[in-house]
Specification:
Helix content is about 45%, strand content about 15%. With about 375 residues, it is α/β, with parallel strands linked by helices. It has two domains: about 5-175 and about 350-370, Glycogen Phosphorylase B (Rossmann fold); about 185-335, 3-Layer(aba) Sandwich (Rossmann fold). The protein has a seven-stranded parallel sheet with strand order 3-2-1-4-5-6-7, sandwiched between helices. The chain has a six-stranded parallel sheet with strand order 10-9-8-11-12-13, sandwiched between helices. α4 (about 100-115) runs parallel beside α5 (about 135-145). The structure holds uridine-diphosphate-N-acetylglucosamine. Uridine-diphosphate-N-acetylglucosamine (UD1) binds near residues 13, 44, 102 and 246.
Length: about 375
Amino acid sequence: MSEETLVHLIAAARPNFMKVAPLYHALSANDRFNVRLVHTGQHYDANMSQAFFDDLGLPQPHHYLEVGSGTHAEQTAKVMMRYEETVTQELPDWTVVVGDVNSTAAVAMVCAKLLIPVVHLEAGLRSGDRSMPEEINRLITDTIADLLWTPSPDADENLLKEGVAAARIELVGNIMIDSYELMRERIEAADTGAKLGVAGDQFGVVTLHRPANVDARASLELLVNQLLCASEQLKLVFPVHPRTRKSLESHGLLDRLASSSRIQLIEPLSYIEFMSLVNGAMLAVTDSGGIQEETTYLDIPCLTLRPNTERPITVTQGSNRLVKPAELLDNIEKVLAGDWPASRCPDLWDGRTAPRCVKSLETYLDAASAA
Ligand code: UD1
């Protein structure tokens, strides 16, 4: 009988929670592991954090680091200082980081320097665009993580090209799909469209939060104008990210957007409410990473307002297309005319990624104890 392995699972910001939850549940169900949840507090509003813990059945975090917002350096440094304190007191056997947010890279750096083995879930994704803070986080994390769990073959290829040893890489599939499948019944029963009064209508879902789209007035104004024109073709529901709301307000654009009766500006939704909304939508307009994948899984047209994507399989196999802001309206018209490719679900996006991660960790531990 092997000894219990203490695993820290790091959650930080909204897109992390649906990656952490299936793995938390799978590790907790296995006697070999003692899993402890660490929330860095990068996202802290109830509707950006606690609502996701509630929906996904996550317990209160065992450690809450309360780092909050700040510049990139402040946020990264605070996570490093506070996690270093936690980790030196508790000394986990493994730490798991997910995604590409500032906390992901910060925790990986702390572990690497304290020689605590670290595994990166959703490794190997590359946009090739180093002006995105997430790309820097991905590069740092993958360089120093001991074990790299990838969602798709393109990620393996990226890592091999960067000189990562094949033995460190394991293709496990897309963990986000596990969350969807875990919650499928509740998502299908949620009927968010009806609650917002758009059920029965064709409608689109909009999410925007990338600094390149929402921070500067010029780019944000272009998007606001495009959305106003698009709303004449299709009702839009727009759960507004706090970063985007602040920017719309400070540039005096919130009232202009709110003036259309065909655009509903709402607060961020919980996971189940949001997936239910997407499920009933005609299309999604987004700059998120995760929504590109969820729409590929659900075969819903996705118009991604970015010049590149670290998730190319959603374009080569899925229903996602990269769209220039000025061409948003044309692309919406294409979808409405039925002129949009159907999605083929990528391999291993099957709701079984978390058990594959657990198996991978067990194999790694067995090999280490045999050595
Ligand atoms: C972060 C991640 C991004 C991810 C996104 C999802 C990094 C570099 N960026 O970007 O990869 O796609 O989360 O949302 O890690 N705010 C609140 N309440 C909150 C959280 C944030 O009001 O709960 C405000 C902050 O004060 C800040 C703004 O929203 O002004 C942006 O938050 P921040 O965490 O800096 O980055 P995101 O844009 O959310």
